[in-house]
Please model this.
Amino acid sequence: MSTCLDYFPLFSEIWIFVATVPGVEENRDGKHFQLWTEYIASLKAAGVTVVDLLPKLSVNDYRSYDLHFNPKGVQIATDEI
Model:
């Protein structure tokens, strides 16, 4: 049986990971929502590298007027990823 690696050998050089981006509520509570916790556990069990930004971010890393990162939050996420 052929795989994509037979046709595209460069795929063997690709590193796949998932970065979780916590919401302000998760940061305020200091933990992921239950569904996210289960999702992260299943990814890790499948051997997928997970970059969890929750421990690195605080509520002060989001803009005050919307749910996006402020420049400090962007820098933290960039450094971690």
